[in-house]
Amino acid sequence: MTNIQIRLEQYMQTWEDAERFSGTVLVAQGDRILLEKGYGYGNHEYAMPNTPSTIYNIGSITKLFTAAAVLQLYDRQKLRLNDPMETYFPGYRHGDRITIHHLLSCTSGIPDYTELSQYSPRDRLSAESIREWLNHEPLQGEPGQQVQKSNSNFVFLARIVEIVSGMEIGAYYEKFLFAPLGLKHTGISCNEEILPNKAYGYSCSGEGVVCAEYYDMSGAFGSGFLYSTAADLFTWTKALGSGTVISKEAYERMLTPYGYLWYLEASVGYGCCVKGEPAEEMFMDGNIYGYTCTLQRYISGDLTVIVLSNNDASPVARLVKGLRSILYTGATSIIVKPELADAADYEQYRHFAGVYCFPPMGWHFTIHYEEGLLYVDRLFNQEFKKKKFQLKLVADTAEAVVLACVVCDSTFTFHKATEVKFQQVTYSFDTLNLPYERSGG
């Protein structure tokens, strides 16, 4: 075992010892596996551990597969990227203005159907029912003008693959993506199907780890309904750039930056995010009830990092940041778990209570003061039934007051040196640092 492998092992052991990660990690350089190991429990009720071969729902990493399916049809001259979507999937009122390229690059302006008031994760949905919802909604911008992540794009793209190929999307994936690469543990996640060696999905509640709420996987059609393993995703990642799945020219299109998302510090490609031009990094994250994951490819160093977790509050991007630091420098300074004050007078912070919003996405959270303690009602943009997530003091300096969630370590930095004192807070969840504003402040 090399020094790098030892440090990778030690780093991940720190996460497991702190009870801050449950899942599987794979790190590779070229074809050489440096780390492949499971951590925590795939089933808490029976204390069944995660292993290197554990299966997880992969959320938006599905979009890479859907994009590849579309690009295969492009390679076979079954469709053109500048064709309007109505050519293949008619009935959407803006379909004559939106091209396949707009859908792939998230520049269509189509709202995310999961943000609509009528959407429920418990409902069984189809691409046609989602299209009908969206027919009553205006575009969020002129097609081609700006990037905005929207699951609707990939629901429509998956339906287009079905219409053009004459095959159900699952059959298409199996015939043209999974079987040729030997991806035997990758497929469409169905709620009623029992999959041996699949991890149960969990969430963090105000009372600790709980079973994730029900999510009907039909609603994630084409955008987030696949399951996989770390090994299968490693095979997939290598194959994408080899010319065996899509052409080299199509792969270059996939990794072309089409617009910058400042809060991700990355640009959007086809079904993925990229950094650099030409791309030096390609990555895709996934988050769906009970699971969170990331697939990261560092092209210049021929490095691959895959992290799959069966807890949707796991800070996988921050975990990967530490792994990457070890790979490039041999060391890391990532803090796994912030040090919390044993005792503090939270009465002096009760004025932090209020509703805070992130205007670009409409996300919000509420902080409240109760019986001498502070609580927040949600983690990131997900809400749970047990809403009381306790906050504890990390630091109180001349510049800011920093609080952290005791169950997931997300931090809330209230800035003192502002014109509107304490009306703004930086909410740090994983590696995202988002400026929230107090509503009505």
UniProtKB/TrEMBL annotation:
Which UniProt keywords are present, listed alphabetically?
Membrane
Where would you say this protein principally sits, based on its record? membrane
Q: Which residues form the Beta-lactamase-related domain?
A: 16-316
Leader sequence residues: none
Compartments it resides in: Membrane
A Pfam short name = Beta-lactamase
Q: Does the keyword Membrane apply?
A: yes
Kindly provide the name given to this protein in its UniProt entry: Beta-lactamase-related domain-containing protein
